UniProtKB/TrEMBL annotation, chain A:
Key words, A-Z: Signal
A cellular component annotation (GO) from this entry: ATP-binding cassette (ABC) transporter complex
Domain Solute-binding protein family positions: 87-442
InterPro entries reported for this sequence: Peptide/Ni-bd, SBP_5, SBP_5_dom
Name of protein: Peptide ABC transporter
Claim: Signal is one of the keywords in the record: yes
GO terms of molecular function: peptide transmembrane transporter activity
Superkingdom of source: Bacteria
One Pfam family recorded for the sequence: SBP_bac_5
Automatic annotation (TrEMBL), chain B:
Organism: Streptosporangium carneum
GO biological process: transmembrane transport
Membrane-protein topology: Multi-pass membrane protein
Presence of keyword Transport: yes
Keywords: Cell membrane, Membrane, Transmembrane, Transmembrane helix, Transport
Annotated protein name in UniProt: Cytochrome c550
InterPro entries, A to Z: BP-dependent_transpt_permease, MetI-like, MetI-like_sf, OppC_N
Family from the record: Belongs to the binding-protein-dependent transport system permease family.
Lineage: Bacteria, Bacillati, Actinomycetota, Actinomycetes, Streptosporangiales
Domain ABC transmembrane type-1 stretches: 84-273
Transmembrane segments: 26-45, 88-111, 123-143, 149-166, 205-230, 250-273
One GO term describing the cellular component: plasma membrane
Localization of this protein: Cell membrane
Length: 527, 286
């Protein structure tokens, strides 16, 4: 999973009486938030977005991080992308054909597309981009690990060869942003342009970079030379990095930002009732899970895992913790994805949970759960699970963990937490993109098989699906694998998320682009 | 004699109470009530303060839940009653330990050669220059955030102020004629300190302790508020304000109730400290 968010505590410090004074003051002024009425919406030249997270780097190879992805989406183009209807559509690519053995893909580029400096986009640039990813082996490299080489026929025709058959490769190209090879090589130095690309852009996207201050703001200007440029999109787009939900709320109210997707659900109704704004609810490719250490300790016992799953109040989570902005999970895949097996919603059954604990023979069981305390959903869910488990005789100790430390702990079964509460975002809407990296034993000890899960039957099904060119057969294998994973109670699937994008009235085109967790500003039409 | 020792004060409590101004009486009553809450609060709590019931979340104050419920459906009154222990006991611990260390170091400084005294005082100066919040954050990173880390941080940054206070008092007492007489009669250093000097030097330390408990409660709550103190689901008051602060617009009681209790506690101890100081410094002539 990748969370492009700050993992440091940035809450402001206030003390005692000051707290109370603040509390009282805010409580007294509350309710006034929605009362302000603005002028009638007019077409605007600039859209300012509040972005939740930290952004030290603009290198598109790091687009596996959702904050980096939404920062490079306006200025780069990938070969392909997923449409809001979950279908693969061409961006730089005009045509593509997957070989029947799923070991190569033939591409034709859209003619006449140029980079921001006027250089045409050619097959050479695609080859450079993919070779660079393979060489550096970071960020999106894992999702295109099957890449072997690019064979160039001419400027607009080329074939990508894969070392192993992979049906996931095509979808993964939606996060491979094509670099202007000449420009990068000129500024490259000895690190393949990593330092240069951290603060510069070498893309062909519908916007160009105007200015960038790491972790503070980015300004984009519309690229009118863009092939198929849409005159209805804003001339200038600004991202302001505001990790605090309450800051985003205040800035939005005061007109300092126009668009926000980081508003705490508790504050959303105030904006829904505000005539200046429109609140668009979108499904989000994100779920909340508890991953069990399936190999070691008490959680290696399926009955204990099932008991923990049955103890939790899922309805309460969706209704109270998510305040209705989400739904109870059904199976290991978020509901934005294709090829989901028919698995019923997770449910609470304390009586059965107690039976299972008794059957397992465990007495006075103590479990430890790692969680990221800085996220309020995690903190509330952790407390709720702790209280629920107490009712079935299990003591749950909560261990606040920073995300990088958690990833480090996954390197060995011994250090993997017994339970870990985690958001997970599928890399692409393709079911395999999440299932393969999370449940295939090939990824044991890597940072993606969170539960150290191993089941030979699931392995075989996933391998078969990933190497199959036949979509129907692939989907059937994915569904069967999900059923087995569910039967193993490998993961506690808690909730699928929704996001709310608050934007000024009159802005249209706000849709879910399932390969991207954040904004896609080139889709937002202001007039 | 215009000032009296605290032990003398305690000997005639009833008499003192009758003559006490109303505000002081209220402050002492409040402190008494808070200490009773520390002792018996959990027995009085109507609900389990850790029982999450998401279906009962954010109920406003009413007949069933007198102070409402929080975002996880836990009873706020029960949590406030339970929270007295970590918050007030934690503060008492921090201030008590600081005073103990402070007085011990001051006694050593007073008995030791001049250069040791100087060295100790310079160490105090350095320690006093470190802001408590910065120190606490550092310690909570090193030891992991917890109530214990918060107490350690507070003791580390607080003992020097007690050392300074006690040292000044001890120095004054040492010049008294009865101490000089004791020295001449040849009593040991230990006996001199414990029987003659300390009992007559510690009044201002007692007052300071009472005064500081209020401040310590604020800092303890503040540390929990910024995530460096007590951890969820602990019912510590500062942590309760923190988790409730998100819901100020929709469920004010989740933050305002523990916030008000913190304020009242700080106020009660500050007023009680003031009253005690007035008595020991001789504004009231006995």
């Amino acid at each position: 999973m990748y969370l492009g968010r700050s993992l440091t505590v940035t809450r402001g410090a206030g003390l005692g009486a000051a707290l109370l004074a603040f509390a009282t003051l805010t409580a007294c002024t509350a309710g006034g938030t929605a009362s302000r009425t603005g002028a009638t919406p007019a077409a605007r030249d600039t859209l300012t977005f509040g972005v939740d997270g930290t952004l030290p780097n603009l290198d598109p190879i790091l687009a596996s991080n959702s904050t980096v992805d939404q920062a490079v989406v306006p200025v780069y183009d990938a070969l392909l992308d997923f449409s809001p209807a979950n279908e693969i559509v061409g961006r730089l690519a005009e045509k593509w054909t997957v070989a029947p053995d799923a070991r190569s893909v033939e591409f034709t580029l859209r003619p006449g597309v140029t980079f921001h400096d006027g250089t045409p986009v050619t097959a050479k640039d695609v080859a450079y981009t993919l070779d660079r990813i393979k060489k550096l082996g970071v960020g999106v490299a894992e999702s295109v690990s099957a890449y072997e080489k690019t064979e160039i026929s001419d400027d607009t025709h080329f074939t990508i060869r894969l070392s192993t058959p992979s049906s996931l490769f095509l979808g993964a190209l939606s996060k491979v942003y094509v670099l202007n090879s000449k420009l990068v090589q000129a500024g490259a130095g000895s690190d393949d342009g990593q330092a240069w690309l951290a603060t510069h852009v070498a893309g062909s996207g519908p916007y160009t970079l105007a200015s960038y201050t790491p972790n503070q703001h980015i300004k984009y200007v519309r690229n009118d030379a863009y092939a198929g440029a849409d005159p209805r999109i804003a001339k200038t787009v600004v991202y302001r990095l505001l990790p605090e939900s309450s800051t985003q709320r205040d800035e939005l109210e005061n007109g300092n930002i126009d668009v926000s997707d980081g508003i705490d659900p508790i504050d959303v109704p105030a904006f829904e009732n505000n005539p200046r704004f429109e609140a668009v609810r979108l499904k989000k490719p994100q779920g909340l899970y508890v991953f069990f250490n399936t190999q070691k300790g008490a959680t290696a016992d399926r009955r204990i895992r099932e008991a923990v799953r049955l103890a939790y109040d899922y309805q309460g989570h969706a209704k109270t913790i998510l305040r209705g902005f989400g739904s109870v999970a059904a199976g290991p895949l978020p509901d934005t994805m294709g090829c989901r097996a028919d698995i019923p919603d997770a449910r609470q059954d304390l009586a059965r949970a107690r039976e299972l604990v008794a059957e397992s023979g465990q007495k006075d069981l103590k479990l430890t759960m790692a969680y990221q305390q800085i996220f309020s959903e995690h903190a509330e869910a952790a407390t709720a699970l702790q209280s629920a488990l107490k009712q079935i005789g299990i003591t749950l100790e909560l261990k606040p963990t920073a995300y990088p430390n958690y990833l480090e702990s996954l390197k060995s079964v011994d250090t993997t937490p017994q339970l870990a509460l985690l958001w997970d975002n599928p890399p692409t809407p393709d079911a395999g993109s999440l299932l393969y990296r999370t449940y295939s034993s090939k990824f044991l000890g890597s940072s993606t098989n969170y539960g150290q899960y191993k089941n030979a039957e699931v392995d075989a099904l996933l391998d078969k699906a990933v190497s199959s060119g036949d979509e129907t057969a692939r989907c059937a294998a994915y569904k069967k694998a999900q059923e087995l994973i569910e039967a193993d109670a490998a993961t506690m699937n808690i909730a699928d998320h929704e996001t709310v994008i608050i934007a000024p009235k009159g802005v249209t085109g706000i849709e879910l682009y399932p390969a991207h967790v954040g904004y896609v500003p080139q889709a937002y039409k202001v007039s | 004699m215009t000032s009296m020792t605290t032990s003398a004060l305690l000997r005639r409590p009833v008499l003192r109470l009758r003559r006490m101004p109303k505000l002081d009486r209220a402050a002492f009553a409040m402190v008494g009530l808070l200490l009773l809450t520390v002792a018996f609060g959990p027995l009085l709590a109507p609900y389990d303060p850790y029982h999450v019931d998401l279906g009962q979340a954010m109920l406003p104050p009413g007949a069933e839940h007198w102070l409402g419920t929080d975002s996880s459906g836990r009873d706020v009154l029960s949590r406030v009653l339970y929270g007295a222990r970590p918050t007030i006991l934690g503060s008492l611990c921090a201030v008590g330990l600081s005073a103990l260390i402070g007085v011990t170091v001051a006694s050593l400084a007073a008995l030791a050669p001049r250069w040791v005294d100087d060295a100790i005082m310079r160490i105090c100066d350095i320690a006093l220059s470190l802001p408590i919040m910065v120190m606490a954050l550092g310690i909570s990173v090193a030891l992991g955030p917890s109530l214990r880390s918060a107490i350690i941080a507070m003791v580390l940054s607080w003992w020097p102020s007690f050392t300074r206070l006690a040292r000044a008092e001890i120095r004054t007492t040492m010049t008294s004629t009865y101490v000089e007489s004791a020295v001449i009669t040849g009593v040991s250093r230990w006996r001199l300190m414990t029987r003659h000097v300390l009992p007559n030097s510690l009044d201002s330390v007692y007052v300071q302790v009472t005064l500081e408990i209020g401040g310590a409660t604020l800092i303890m709550a503040g540390l929990s508020f910024i995530g460096a103190g007590a951890q969820p689901p602990s019912a510590e008051w500062g942590a309760m304000v923190e988790s409730g602060s998100r819901f100020l617009t929709s469920a004010w009681w989740t933050a305002v109730v523990p916030g008000a209790v913190i304020t009242l506690t700080a106020l009660a101890f500050a007023l009680a400290g003031d009253a005690l100081r007035a008595r020991t410094s001789g504004r009231e002539v006995m």
